[in-house]
Amino acid sequence: MSPKTDPQIRTVGVGGAAESTDMVLNIGPQHPSTHGVLRLRLVLDGERIQHAEPVIGYMHRGAEKLFEARDYRQIVMLANRHDWLSAFSNELGVVLAVERMLGMEVPERAVWTRTLLAELNRVLNHLMFLGSYPLELGGITPVFHAFREREELQNVMEEVSGGRMHYMFNRVGGLKEDIPLGWTSRARQGVASVRSRMDVYDRLVLGNEIFRGRTRGVGVLTPEAVHSYGVSGPIARASGVDFDLRRDEPYLAYGELQRELKVVTRQEGDCLARFEVLLEQTHNALDLADACLDRIAELEPGPINQRLPKVLKAPEGHTYAWTENPLGINGYYLVSKGEKTPYRLKLRSASYNNIQALTELLPGTLVADMVAILGSLFFVVGDIDK
């Protein structure tokens, strides 16, 4: 079999012959151009990528198996870690699944507070990528702005939950405890402060001709590929796939926020479109957070959780709860045998599906565009490996 047809063979050419030979290049598993411990196996013909294979599993921690050995309270601790930038949203899917199995009604105060915190968590997630993506393309300034804005909101999240990254604030039946006195006004100030400085990304990043030159028309993902690979979230919407669970299958309080909710889409499907969708979604998440704060201010004082038995057991059966996490669709398939631990809890994470699209995006592109394409998929490696 010739080196041209067998990607396992590495051929090294000498002199002018090197122009017509293939080379297998490993990016990672430890490499500054990757988001964590990811390995990309590329087959190159000169400077052009012929074949790309994402090799995953270097961070695999067996979360799904560990779910089976933890009770429904302890699972929350494991669930919020696979996408460490979306911890609150990860917790949410688990408790929603268990509550659905129990047929449990959550207090209205908890529903609106959960929605608020989910949108603040969305902003925190998106700010990380709004800062780190230009950094990968050589622009160092935006990441300093992004971390300043993140700090404003992380202070708010830390005050209410006690955690900076892994909040552990959701409980089956509601939230761990009520929000502190005066917290809503501080949250409102944090949202306003971040919003007042968001134009940095419009001017400094989107207005930069070098950034636009590196991203426009690069890494175009078609709607057909989106459906084939199960891509979701901002990446899918940047390719014209108009789907958002908050609008299409409302959960929490999103059914009452349809006027404020804006599902951002683009048709181009390139790296620039993906960044634009992420930026517009961040603006909208801040608007949704303000709407939640307004609604919470109108609510009468009341409980924020349900009283639970000392040993919580879900009835026998199965259910699937999916949510629109910051990076895309996150789903939990829960199977219960009536015990205090799940018989099976299958996780469908956004990054796992999204990263598979690299096999479609990278072939035919130049090595120089690889980092631009890779960074525009906005993934977390723990969310891939689970």
TrEMBL record:
The keyword Oxidoreductase does not apply. It comes from Streptomyces cavernicola. It catalyses: a quinone + NADH + 5 H(+)(in) = a quinol + NAD(+) + 4 H(+)(out). It is found in: Cell membrane. NDH-1 is composed of 14 different subunits. Subunits NuoB, C, D, E, F, and G constitute the peripheral sector of the complex. InterPro entries: NADH_Q_OxRdtase_suD, NADH_UbQ_OxRdtase_49kDa_CS, NDH1_su_D/H, NiFe-Hase_large. It is a peripheral membrane protein. This is NADH-quinone oxidoreductase subunit D. The gene is nuoD. Residues 137-309, 312-386 form the NADH-quinone oxidoreductase subunit D domain. Keywords: Cell membrane, Membrane, NAD, Quinone, Translocase, Transport. NDH-1 shuttles electrons from NADH, via FMN and iron-sulfur (Fe-S) centers, to quinones in the respiratory chain. The immediate electron acceptor for the enzyme in this species is believed to be a menaquinone. Couples the redox reaction to proton translocation (for every two electrons transferred, four hydrogen ions are translocated across the cytoplasmic membrane), and thus conserves the redox energy in a proton gradient. Belongs to the complex I 49 kDa subunit family. Its main location: membrane. Its EC number is 7.1.1.-.
